[in-house]
């Protein structure tokens, strides 16, 4: 089973081998589901989102992007192409997605188009994160706070 290298809810949860500035950037990001609109934050509950999950029979979700692999900035065209490939992967897996946007508190890094994958398995989420060379993704379960899953291998 593919597992994340680390599960992080607070900075103190992160391993010493991880770049602490990068972890802080992820922790200081709003993960916005765009339609319907919900703002998610690592380690913070969102009762309205939990209610929506329950009403729609969603037990878990992952917020994943294909943009800027390994935090290396790419062109808009390349990032768009990569996210289209990610969306095709979800389609092939019959996983429903909602459009998303990762919006950092620090305006130096532009928002990243993302997908909120519904009822995705942890193994599928980790595999896709790694396939698209992402450092991390957000994973959550109904009734629990979203967590940052570090998926990049050392």
What does this structure look like?
The protein is of the alpha+beta class and 154 residues long. The chain has one domain (6-150). It is 29% helix and 27% strand. The protein contains four helices and eight strands. Strands 1-8-7-4-6-5-2-3 form an eight-stranded antiparallel beta sheet. A hairpin with a 5-residue loop joins strand 7 (136-141) and strand 8. It starts with 5 loop residues before the first strand and ends with a strand. The mean pLDDT is 94.
* Average residue pLDDT: 94
Shape descriptor reads globular
The structural domain count equals: 1
- State the major sheet: 8 strands, antiparallel
- The number of distinct β-strands equals 8
Strand fraction equals: 25-35%
Gyration radius (Cα, Å) is 14 Å
Question: What low-confidence regions span 5 or more consecutive residues with pLDDT below 50?
Answer: none
Q: What is the terminal-to-terminal distance?
A: 17 Å
Class from secondary-structure proportions:
alpha+beta
Largest beta sheet: strand ordering: 1-8-7-4-6-5-2-3
Number of helices: 4
Give the topology string: H per helix, E per strand: EHEEHEHEEHEE
| Percent helix | 25-40%
Entry keywords:
single chain, 154 residues, alpha+beta, 8-stranded antiparallel β-sheet
Could you give a quick summary of the protein structure above?
This protein has 154 residues and is of the alpha+beta class.
């Amino acid at each position: 089973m593919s597992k994340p290298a680390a599960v992080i809810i607070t900075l103190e949860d992160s391993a010493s081998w991880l770049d602490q500035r990068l972890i802080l950037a992820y922790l200081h990001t709003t993960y916005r589901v765009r339609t319907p609109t919900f703002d998610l934050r690592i380690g913070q509950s969102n009762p309205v989102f939990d209610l929506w999950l329950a009403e729609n029979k969603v037990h878990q979700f992952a917020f994943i992007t294909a943009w800027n692999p390994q935090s290396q900035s790419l062109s808009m065209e390349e990032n768009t192409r990569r996210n289209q490939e990610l969306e095709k992967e979800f389609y092939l897996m019959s996983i429903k997605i909602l459009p998303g946007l990762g919006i950092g508190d620090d305006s130096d890094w532009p928002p990243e188009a993302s997908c909120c994958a519904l009822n995705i398995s942890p193994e599928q989420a980790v595999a896709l994160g790694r396939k698209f060379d992402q450092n991390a993704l957000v994973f959550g379960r109904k009734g629990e706070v979203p967590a940052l899953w570090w998926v990049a291998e050392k």
